[in-house]
Amino acid sequence: MVVAEVVIELKEGVADPEGMNTKKALNLLGWDVEGVKSGKIFEIDLGEDIDEDEAREEVEEMCKRLLANPVIQTYDITLEG
Amino acid sequence: MVVAEVVIELKEGVADPEGMNTKKALNLLGWDVEGVKSGKIFEIDLGEDIDEDEAREEVEEMCKRLLANPVIQTYDITLEG
Question: Smallest CA–CA separation between A70 and chain B, in Å?
Fold first, then answer.
């Protein structure tokens, strides 16, 4: 079973209100954190019949077409199994 | 600089509508994926003046109190730097 882990984060310079508000909330709770970045993660089960090169290529296409917005987001793909 | 990466996912058995709809959308686009799990990721900058044990303990407390809902979510902490 090949599983791809896709981490999607905002590019540097793009406003991250969820991250900023999480930082504020942590500060209010007494933790002295200096910054928080928020992001999304998808674990995609690609089944058995696929090799690593093919898997990476497919998942990159999925990121471009559906999972990420390449204008403001970066994606990072890790394959397991 | 110590940065903690926190991955928050739904526990097994908890409905994941975002994951299910992402799977459906990928299938409709022609990809034969067998399952998608969605989750969140936070990168927390803890500053310089903290050692690894202390950092892990603090971030675990942050997960319990703010970042995750331990009833339905799991969290996984990785420290860098």
Answer: 17
- Please give, rounded to a whole number of angstroms, the shortest distance from the CA of A71 to a CA of chain B: 20
Contacts of A22 in chain B (CB under 8 A): 42, 66-67
Domains of chain B: 3-80 (3.30.1280.10)
pTM of structure? 0.92
Q: Please tell me the distance from the alpha carbon of residue B74 to that of residue B33, in angstroms, as a whole number.
A: 24
What ipTM was estimated for this complex? 0.91
Amino acid making up residue A55:
A
What tens digit of pLDDT does each residue of B14-64 get?
999 999 999 999 999 999 999 999 999 999 999 998 999 999 999 999 999
Answer yes or no: are the C-beta atoms of A71 and A61 closer than 8 Å: no
